[in-house]
Design goal:
InterPro entries: Pyridox_Oxase_N, Split_barrel_FMN-bd. This is Pyridoxamine 5'-phosphate oxidase N-terminal domain-containing protein. The protein is globular and about 45 Å long. It has a single domain, classed as Electron Transport, Fmn-binding Protein, Chain A (Pnp Oxidase, Chain A). Strand 3 and strand 4 form a beta hairpin. It has a seven-stranded antiparallel β-sheet with strand order 2-1-5-6-7-4-3. The protein starts with 9 loop residues before the first helix and ends with a helix. Helices cover 21% and strands 39% of the residues.
């Protein structure tokens, strides 16, 4: 692990301004325990702010409303970045998308390399979408466009 900084690096910022997936870590509103979920509707507004959209059917929305402290885990630059921050609602519901989403802004408080000492990622994890490619591209386009307007 390494010391934390309060802003994302230029390379990390660039990765989070294009489609990527991250782990969103929250505190469960029911159990009070930690939770971790993979999400892809996220992008960096700038070096100190992330924006994400979550389906209202997800427990994550209630978790964040109940406790705004979150950690975003990003696999990039040969590292595992842990981005700690505080979430606030940017827009709820997010307009111009086919179902109800909540848009959150994450104010970055700390960024650190969470990979164990002496290690470097040899490759970043990759994913593929297993549903209709055209529908996926259309929905992602609608969500990212609405998030940028929020």
């Amino acid at each position: 692990m390494s010391e934390s900084v309060t802003q994302m690096t230029d390379d990390l910022l660039l990765q989070l301004q294009s489609e990527t997936f991250v782990l969103l870590n929250t505190v469960d509103a029911v159990t009070g325990g930690p939770t971790s979920s993979a999400i892809s509707w996220i992008y960096a507004l700038n070096a100190s702010t992330l924006r994400l959209a979550l389906d209202h059917r997800s427990r994550l929305v209630e978790n964040i409303k109940n406790n705004p402290l979150v950690t975003i885990t990003v696999f990039a630059e040969g590292k595992v970045h842990a981005i700690n921050g505080r979430a606030s609602i940017a827009l709820d519901p997010l307009p111009e998308v086919p179902f109800k989403l909540c848009c959150f802004d994450i104010s970055v408080e700390a960024v650190r390399n969470a990979l164990f000492y002496g290690a470097k990622l040899s490759s970043a994890p990759q994913y593929i979408k297993t549903y209709d490619q055209r529908a996926s591209e259309k929905l992602d386009g609608q969500v990212f466009s609405a998030m940028q307007k929020a």
